[in-house]
Amino acid sequence: MTYNVLCLLLLFFFVYTIIGCYLFSEVPKGINIDDYVNFKNFLFGMMTLFKLSTGDNWTATAFEFSEFYSMFYNFFKKI
Fold first, then answer.
1. 43-52: b or e for each residue (b if 16 or more CB lie within 10 Å)?
2. Could you report the average pLDDT of every consecutive run of 10 residues in the chain (79 residues)?
């Protein structure tokens, strides 16, 4: 049972890391986005998703990523 849950979680991380690398690889550095928290490559994308999944300052990081695309920025600005 635990193995199935971990495999599913890894699959979600894998898919969303690829999507994040596609959408957010060109986001410039900022306050929360630094050398390790970014989607410049697959490894850093996985570490970023793990950090966000633990809840470690995820709102500020997500807001900073969303500023790169105005569609996401307007969504987070309303919240």
1. ebbbebbebb
2. 92 94 88 91 94 88 78 60
Given a contact cutoff of 8 angstroms between Cβ atoms, the answer to whether 46 and 16 are in contact is no
Q: What is the DSSP letter of 35?
A: S
Contact present, 55 and 26 (Cβ < 8 Å): no
Which residues neighbour 44 within 8 Å (Cβ) at sequence distance 6 or greater? 36, 37, 38
Distance CA 39, CA 24 (A): 6
d(CA 45, CA 39): 4
Q: Specify whether the CB–CB gap between 43 and 71 falls below 8 A.
A: no
The pTM assigned to this predicted structure is: 0.78
Rounded Cα–Cα distance for residues 27 and 39 (Å): 8
